[in-house]
Design goal:
Order of helices and strands: HHHHEEEHEEEEEEEHEEEEEE
Keywords: Coiled coil, Cytoplasm, Protein biosynthesis, RNA-binding, tRNA-binding
Pfam family, one: tRNA_bind
Protein name: tRNA-binding domain-containing protein
Subcellular location: Cytoplasm
Structural class: alpha+beta
Number of strands: 16
Strand content: 15-25%
Radius of gyration: 32 Å
Shape: elongated
Helix content: 25-40%
Number of helices: 6
Distance between the termini: 57 Å
Largest sheet: 6 strands, antiparallel
Main location: cytoplasm
Length: 316
């Protein structure tokens, strides 16, 4: 009986130790994430300052360009702004030109107003003629209209990154290096995700893991199982780490980049190679912050994505 009570006490103490270790690990992870956010704030301020300077330079160059065009007789289109740079001087020259093309009408003073009316009609015809080149170029315009709106830009806003939780994971029955995960993305149903992480991350660490998933790739079969998303990791040939989400993130949160606003495609067209084009610009910087073309990836109001130990590596 004594040995049974001792064994019971030891078991209870072991459970208490395990819970304390788990709590300490969580505290360490929170400290790491807070440290990463603190490091990124000065860099963010510096980049904002540089952006403001660049905007001022662009505005100056725009003004110089407009003035140069006016000097060279290029017509300016009035825009709904308060700028006084855009003038109507070239149109005035055009309106003064028609009276010069009316010799011989001076001898009929009673009909002096009629030639002026007739001179207005050729102006309208000229305007119609000016539209003809645009009509000739209609095939090109139609091509642009037929393309999806998302095709007009090529940046990270096209990619649908969202926070999800792995609720179940097992090894692929026909592939030794693949996991098959069931992921809750807050859609009312779980998505199946196939990941080649068996050689890098133990299955125990995959279970209930909260991570970032790319959700608008076209679903594809991997060794017979349809994969509906992709888990995002900091990656080298030797080591792979699942990206960490900031504290307070919840399932379904979208990952964005302030420098590249916009809504993601419903589903990427594989023929357009959007993912293949943008992937090289996704990296983890020296401060272990995930970024796109030097701009941090974040969950608005909660913080940035980070890696645990890897820095200066690609995200895929």
């Amino acid at each position: 009986m004594a040995s049974a009570s001792v064994l019971q006490r030891l078991t209870q103490r072991a459970k208490q130790a395990e819970s304390m270790i788990a709590a300490l690990k969580q505290q360490i992870e929170n400290i790491r994430q807070n440290a990463a956010i603190t490091v990124s704030k000065p860099e963010e301020g510096r980049l904002k300052s540089e952006n403001q300077k660049l905007k001022a330079e662009v505005e100056t160059l725009k003004s110089q360009l407009i003035l140069a065009e006016i000097r060279n007789g290029v017509k300016q289109v009035n825009l709904p702004t308060n700028r006084s740079v855009v003038k109507a001087e070239p149109p005035k020259k055009e309106s003064a030109a028609p009276p010069e093309v009316k010799p011989g009408v001076k001898q009929a003073p009673a009909a002096g107003d009629k030639p002026a009316q007739k001179s207005e009609k050729p102006d309208k015809k000229e305007k119609k003629d000016k539209k003809k080149p645009a009509a000739e170029g209609e095939p090109k315009a139609k091509k642009g209209k037929n393309e999806p709106v998302g095709e007009e830009k090529l940046d990270v806003s096209r990619l649908d990154f969202r926070v999800g939780q792995i609720v179940d994971v097992k090894k692929h029955p026909d592939a030794d290096t693949l996991y098959v995960e069931e992921v809750d993305l807050g859609e009312g149903r779980n998505r199946t995700v196939v990941s080649g992480l068996v050689n890098h991350i133990p299955i125990e660490q995959m279970q209930n893991k909260i991570a970032v998933f790319m959700c608008n790739l076209k679903p594809a079969k991997m060794r017979g199982i349809l994969s509906e998303a992709m888990i995002m990791c900091a990656s080298t040939p030797e080591k792979v780490e699942i990206l960490n989400v900031p504290a307070g993130s919840v399932i379904g949160d979208r990952v964005t980049c302030k420098a590249y606003p916009g809504n993601p495609d419903a589903q990427l067209n594989p023929k357009k190679k959007v993912w293949e084009t943008l992937a090289p610009d996704l990296k983890v910087n020296k401060e272990k912050v995930a970024e796109f073309r030097g701009e941090p990836l974040q969950i608005e109001g909660k913080g940035v994505l980070t890696s645990t130990t890897l820095s200066g590596v690609k995200i895929k």
